[in-house]
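User: Please fill in residues for this 193-position structure.
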């Protein structure tokens, strides 16, 4: 099982990228998490329907689309910028959602977590991101995992300092992998019918 990890932060020392790395440690043995290189998101230009029609899909968008399509599920980790998701992340999702019928996120299992240096752990951004993913057609795990005060949330080895948060992250991973397994089983039954 391949899970694509997409961080909504481009910083080298991002709390949200750390959160994805902590999640990777909690995956079952038959699963792996591939972190999306932040340079892919950096290279996605502003969405422009005219440019898309005239020039075609930019290489970074095609790469993102391919990585999402190849993955069995996607785990997003988002910070909160002005009570919402980062603009570059929303822009990338706008690109891969068009045309909607061909979006690699349509029918894809996804989950959202978030970390921020504030007290609330990006809860509004997580809710916004789940809403956007649902509108694209993703099958979104209906949970949130807010990691607040993220500057102090980590052990030296990169794991979460809070046992409770680590257990909640593990539960989140279990919910995502179970959703992927259920989707896979449903597809197998549909093919057999």
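Assistant: Residues filled in for all 193 positions:
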């Amino acid at each position: 099982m391949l899970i694509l990890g997409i961080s909504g932060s481009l910083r080298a020392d991002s709390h949200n990228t750390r959160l994805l790395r902590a999640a990777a440690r909690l995956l079952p043995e038959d699963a792996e998490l591939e972190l999306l290189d932040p340079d892919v998101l950096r290279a996605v230009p502003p969405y422009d329907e005219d440019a898309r029609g005239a020039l075609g899909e930019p290489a970074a968008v095609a790469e993102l689309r391919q990585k999402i399509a190849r993955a069995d599920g996607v785990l997003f980790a988002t910070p909160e910028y002005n009570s919402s998701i980062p603009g570059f992340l929303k822009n990338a999702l706008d690109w891969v959602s068009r045309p909607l019928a061909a979006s690699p996120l349509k029918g894809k299992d996804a989950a959202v977590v978030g970390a921020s240096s504030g007290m609330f752990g990006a809860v509004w951004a997580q809710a916004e991101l789940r809403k956007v993913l649902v509108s694209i057609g993703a099958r979104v795990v209906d949970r949130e995992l807010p990691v607040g005060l993220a500057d102090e949330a980590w052990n030296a080895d990169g794991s979460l300092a809070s046992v409770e948060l680590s257990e909640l992250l593990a539960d989140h991973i279990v919910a995502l992998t179970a959703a992927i397994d259920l989707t896979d089983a449903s597809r197998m039954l549909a093919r057999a019918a």
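For context: Helices lie at 15-24, 38-42, 49-55, 59-70, 87-96, 123-136, 163-192.
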